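dumping these here so i dont lose them again. two proteins, back to back, each one seq then structure tokens. dont judge the mess
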Amino acid sequence: QMPSRLASVDKDGVFAQHAHDKAGYVTMMELRALMVWDCRDCLARAGAIAVRYSAVRRQGAGNSADKGQREPAVLDYPTQQRRLLPLVATAYAFHFTGELLRSTIAQLRSSPASGA
């Protein structure tokens, strides 16, 4: 007997498929969802490090140190914001896309015969 719940072969050698034809694609979808989830994890960690460093690091403002004022944080510069904030937004997008994929795959796993 095959170690699969989607198909079997009887003693006479007849192959029988128990589920919908497309049910075998769930494993491939799981791997793709895992890639999205892993990308989210790496991007979120890198983005958090970059944003935290940019918020703490102070640089610029020329003569402001002479006047007793603090230099602005690197994150206060629009160029830095334009570079970092899209990465944070992409990490959030990957997060919610990964969650949706995981819940969809869980539904497919619970009822593979329903097709789709």
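---- next one ----
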Amino acid sequence: IKNVRKQIHFNEYYRIQQEIDEDVDIGKILTRIEKYQAAVDFNRRNYEKVLLNITRYPQLKCLSHDVPYTYARSLFVAFQASLQNSDAGNDPPHHYLEEAE
């Protein structure tokens, strides 16, 4: 029974890790195709998913660099894009920079 529990735990960890990796790729694609708000929201949820699961699966710390970087990058790129559009009377979302830090 102990080995079965370990295998179930490993399978669950592996599933979560794959899901997070795929979500990082999706977040990068959303940023590349200039769907900035969708990218920010998607990457925020992925970051929160890592934070929620890292206590249960400490092995997820290996993702603790790529996920926040992808999230911060999407915030920064969205801010840069809004600066270019700010000539039209829209204020850039400065809170994105604060959140990215």
